[in-house]
Each structure stands twice: as C-alpha cells, then as structure tokens.
C-alpha cells in the first residue's frame, strides 16, 4: 500500500501540488485523471522520488520513502516517464536487461537472463529483441520500456501517460497488458491517463486532480458519473453504457 | 568478445609505441636517457589516462558527445594563474621556477575553483548540469579575457615564458611531479572504479537511472569531482590539453559501438596512450622537435571535430 500524506510542491510561490493525501490500494489499477496542469505527473514524480516534495511524506507499506535506500526502493517501485530520450544506442534486449540492474548491478546471472526472456515474451518482443530502439515504432519502443519495468519485477509500477502518441490499437494493447500485470501477477499499477475512457474501462480506482488538489477519489463507478466529471473538467459529459463499458461522450459537450 | 579482442590489439599497439619510444636509438644509454624517457612515458600515460577518463565520464553526465571538460574553464583558470604570477612576480620568482610549488598551487587553485563551481550543482534544481556548464563557460571566457589583457601588457621576454605554458608539452617534466600525480590518480581510480557500471545506467538519463536505483545526484557529484581532479592534474602536469579528450572519446565510441563504460573508458585510455606516446615519438624523431605534440593534436583534433559536426548534421 502506498500512502501519500499531505504532499505539496511549489514552483516559486505557485503550488503545483497542494496538500494531497491519497492511498493507493494494492493489486489494483489506480488512474490519475484531471485537466492539463492539474499536477498529476508532478505527484507521480514525487511518489517515485524523481522529484523532492516540499512538504509531506510518502509511505510504502508504512516505511517512509526517504528512509529507504535507492537500490531497495528500485526493487519495490518502478516508474516510467512519458519521454524516454536517450543518447546511447541500445537493443531491446540490452534495455530490458537494465531492468535487472537493482539486483545484479550489471552482471546478469542466469536467473536474470531468464527473467529478461520472460519479460520479452510477456510484451511479445522476443522476435525483435536484437533490434535497436531507434529502429522501432513508438508502440514498440513503449512496449520495450514496459518490458524493462516488468524485468525490474517490482510490486508497484507507476506509469506517466504511457499511451502518449500511441494509436488506438497499441493503446488497447498496452492497457490490456497492464490489466494482466494486475490480475495475473498481482502487481499494483498507478497510471496517469488523459483519455478518461481508458480510465473508465481499465481502472479499478480513479483519483482526479484539479489545480494541484484532489477533487475526487473513489472506485471507477463513482467517478465516471456526469456530475463528478462536471466537477473535474467543467464539462457536461453524458455517459453511455456499452456492453460492460461506461463510455464518456465528451466530443461535442 | 570482439570488443575484448580489439582492446587487446590496442593494448599491444600501445605497448609497442611505449617500447619504440623508450628504446629507439637509445645507443646503450641506460643510465642517462632511459630514466628520462621513462618519466616522459609515465607522464604521457597519466595524461592520456586522466583526459580519456574525464572526458568520457563528463560526456556521459552531460549527455553530449561534443563537449569536453574544458568547458568548465579549468584550463582557462590555469593560464590565468600562470599569466598573473609571471606578470606580478616575474619569471624568476620561486613560484615560477620551482615546479613542485607551481604544480601544487595550480592544482589546489583548480580544484578549489571546481568545488566552488559545483556549489551551484549541489543546490537542488532541475536543469542544474546545464546551469553549471553555462556558469563554467562564462567564467572561463572571463578568465581567458583577463589572461589576454595581461599578456598584452606584459614584458615581451616574460611573455615567452607565458607562451610556453599555453601549450601542453612533455619535453620538460619534473620526475617528482610525475610520481606524485601517479599516486593521486591511482587513489582516485581505486575510489571511482566501482562506479563504472553506474555510468552505463547514467547514460540512460536521469529518470531511468533513478528508477533503476542509482543515487543519481550523489553519483554525478562524485564523478564531477573526479573529473575536476583529473583535469587539474593533467593540466598542471603538462599544460592545457583537454581538446585531446574529445578525439579519443569519440574514437572510442566509433570503435567499440557499445554502451558499456568499462569498454569505452578502457578503449579511450589506450587510444590516448597510443596517440600521445606515438605522437611524441613522431615529434621527436621525425619533426626533430620543430613542433610540439599539442600543436599536432589540436590540428588533428580540429579536423576531426569538423568531421563530427558535418556527420551529425547529416544524421539529423
């Protein structure tokens, strides 16, 4: 369980995240939604120690993150940001092998190799594993990075807009994989999403932010309601039930 | 494995260069010429080692393959220091004539300067590395301008001495300084070697590195301090030669095509030893001292730099 206690971040005098307290349930997909500039990514960065919080604390299974060693933290929580530019040329397999770094410090054991194989298999990348990252499409690259995170084998996986720049097919593919990570492997996934329909269809829990504060925090059914969405986005969004999915029709509202 | 073979071949070539330099035309002068040549070779090995290591590490930290650590203004500070000492105290002052003293003063000044500069980095902030570089460029340019100002005013005879310091030279090296440098570099490398696999992760960028459990800020800090120490040592020992690092680092990237710093750094070190020792032999035996090694290095390096820029432009 990840507990966020009154976390704040200021740039100058402007609060980007202000007094946010939320609890992330284990073995569920939790989505952060909200308008641009609501502080979703900042919050995720602070939880994953990419960014220092100005006030407040983050507890993982009741241990303060600041008291954990970087390496131990990396065995429990992984984070994937939206832009992953790098200036070295790596193959997919080399990138995924880096996921084992917290465990083996670059000297892969047979066990590590096996886990790398499994992660590649899981992301359907085994055939492409010796291709270089700069030769891949956006969707394949994103899958390669997720495979690295799977190889890292952490209980908590945090993803910052993993669907950015992906088409429908690849977005669905990624979301289904995340669902399987939770349902089959018992991981806890926290994800920042822009498309509320993906949040509605795939997540168990939704936390909505606006102007640096939490405005809604509850199970998906409670948040995907016209009244709640009005509060979050200032838009009248009708909701249609289609099969098992609740779809927000926001295009002409 | 192919890279291992390449390294072994390069090491053999480097050993061949050293042997050639040490024993060519020795005419049995084991007592006089050989010890002097040994000192020079050791000095070149130290210089090659420090420059290659510092440049590769610096480029990894800054994620930029056409930067050299000289951007932090350390060699500009060295020249300013030498110019000012000669300008105010004269070339016959003990700080100029006593090489040990001069070495220590230069070394301490450069390291203190680098640490002050890093104060900016130690403060928390997101674009801290680029801010550090920016400050380094500005301060370095400032130092160069002041040096030029004093060089214009200085007595022409004294200027000869200053000019002598402006180019790296292996022709007149003090043996005591070589051994002292060897000790410092040895200590630093024992300390730094265990971080070498962390460098592989650093090249993936800050966020991925932190995700993989690398204490990014603290490692970058320690690495930058080692870079400063290495650059200061090579500059105080032979003079400003950081441009050379750009060539060997990029040759190493081209030659090994890997992300593993163990290979890249070792390769760059061996390449720089070949270039320095082999180059010095050419300077001494073929040009018979009519030029200095650093002039050749700057010429070859300049041409290579232009080639890199043209190539990067094509790739973009």
Average of the residue pLDDT scores of chain B:
88
Q: Tell how many strands the DSSP assignment of chain B holds.
A: 0
Q: How many helical elements of chain B?
A: 14
Oligomer state of the chains in this structure: heterodimer
| Number of separate domains of chain A | 2
- Under the CATH scheme, the architecture of the largest domain in chain A is 3-Layer(aba) Sandwich
CATH topology call of chain B: ABC transporter involved in vitamin B12 uptake, BtuC
Tell me the number of strands of chain A: 12
Number of helices of chain A: 10
What does this molecule look like?
The complex is a heterodimer of chains A (about 250) and B (about 325). By secondary structure, chain A is of the alpha/beta class. Chain A has 2 domains: about 1-75 and about 155-255, P-loop containing nucleotide triphosphate hydrolases (Rossmann fold, 3-Layer(aba) Sandwich); about 85-155, no CATH class. Chain A contains 10 helices and 12 strands. The longest helix of chain A is centred in the C-terminal third of the chain and has 18 residues, at about 170-185. With about 325 residues, chain B is an all-alpha fold. Chain B has one domain: ABC transporter involved in vitamin B12 uptake, BtuC. Chain B has helices at about 1-25, 35-60, 75-90, 95, 100-120, 130-155, 155-165, 175-190, 195-200, 205-210, 215-240, 245-255, 260-285, 295-315. The longest helix of chain B is centred in the N-terminal third of the chain and has 30 residues, at about 35-60. Chain B starts with a helix and ends with a helix. The model of chain B has no long low-confidence stretch (mean pLDDT about 90). The chains are: A alpha/beta (about 250), B mainly alpha (about 325). The interface of A and B includes residues 48, 79 and 105 of A. Chain B: It is found in: Cell membrane.
């Amino acid at each position: 369980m990840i507990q966020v206690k009154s976390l704040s971040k200021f740039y100058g005098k402007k609060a980007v995240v202000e007094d946010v307290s939320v609890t992330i349930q284990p073995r569920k997909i939790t989505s952060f939604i909200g308008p641009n500039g609501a502080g979703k990514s900042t919050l995720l960065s602070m939880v994953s120690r990419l960014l220092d919080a100005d006030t407040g604390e983050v507890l993982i299974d009741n241990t303060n993150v600041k008291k954990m060693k970087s390496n131990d933290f990396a065995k429990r929580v992984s984070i994937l940001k939206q832009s992953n530019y790098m200036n070295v040329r790596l193959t997919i397999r080399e990138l995924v092998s880096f996921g084992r770094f917290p465990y083996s410090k670059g000297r892969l054991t047979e066990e590590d190799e096996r886990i790398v194989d499994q992660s590649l298999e899981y992301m359907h990348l085994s055939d492409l594993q010796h291709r270089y990252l700069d030769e891949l499409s956006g969707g394949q690259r994103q899958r390669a990075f997720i495979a690295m995170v799977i190889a890292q084998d952490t209980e908590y996986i945090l993803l910052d807009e993993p669907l950015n720049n992906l088409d429908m097919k690849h977005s669905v593919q990624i979301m289904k994989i995340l669902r399987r990570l939770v349902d089959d492997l018992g991981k806890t996934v926290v994800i920042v999403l822009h498309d509320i329909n993906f949040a509605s269809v795939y997540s168990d829990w939704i936390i909505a932010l606006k102007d640096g504060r939490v405005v809604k925090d509850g199970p998906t059914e409670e948040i995907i309601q016209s009244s709640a969405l009005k509060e979050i986005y200032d838009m009248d969004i009708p909701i249609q039930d289609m099969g098992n999915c609740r779809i927000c029709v926001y295009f002409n509202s | 494995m192919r890279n291992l073979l390449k390294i072994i071949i390069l090491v053999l070539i480097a050993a061949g260069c050293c042997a050639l330099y040490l024993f060519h035309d020795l005419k049995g002068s084991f007592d006089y010429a050989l010890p002097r040549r040994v000192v020079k070779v050791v000095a070149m090995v130290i210089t090659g080692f420090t420059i290659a290591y510092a440049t590769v590490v610096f480029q990894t930290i800054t994620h930029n393959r056409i930067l050299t650590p000289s951007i932090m203004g350390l060699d500009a500070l060295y020249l300013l220091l030498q110019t000012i000492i000669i300008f105010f105290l004269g070339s016959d002052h003990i700080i100029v004539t006593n090489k040990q003293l001069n070495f220590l003063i230069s070394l301490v000044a450069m390291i203190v300067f680098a640490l002050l500069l890093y104060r900016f980095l130690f403060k928390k902030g997101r674009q801290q590395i680029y801010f550090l570089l920016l400050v380094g460029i500005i301060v370095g340019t400032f130092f160069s301008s002041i040096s030029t100002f004093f060089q214009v005013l200085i007595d022409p005879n004294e200027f000869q001495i200053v000019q002598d310091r402006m180019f790296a030279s292996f022709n007149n090296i003090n043996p005591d300084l070589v051994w002292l440098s060897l000790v410092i570099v040895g200590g630093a490398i024992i300390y730094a070697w265990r971080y070498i696999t962390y460098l592989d992760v650093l090249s993936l960028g800050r966020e991925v590195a932190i995700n993989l459990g690398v204490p990014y800020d603290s490692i970058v800090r320690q690495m930058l301090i080692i870079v400063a120490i290495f650059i200061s040592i090579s500059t105080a020992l032979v003079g400003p030669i950081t441009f050379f690092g750009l060539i060997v680092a990029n040759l190493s990237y081209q030659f090994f095509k890997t992300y593993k710093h163990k290979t890249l750094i070792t390769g760059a070190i061996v390449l720089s030893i070949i270039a320095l020792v082999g180059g010095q032999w050419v300077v001494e035996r073929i040009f018979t001292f009519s030029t200095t090694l650093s002039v050749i290095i700057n010429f070859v390096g300049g041409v290579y730099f232009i080639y890199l820029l043209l190539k990067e432009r094509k790739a973009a």
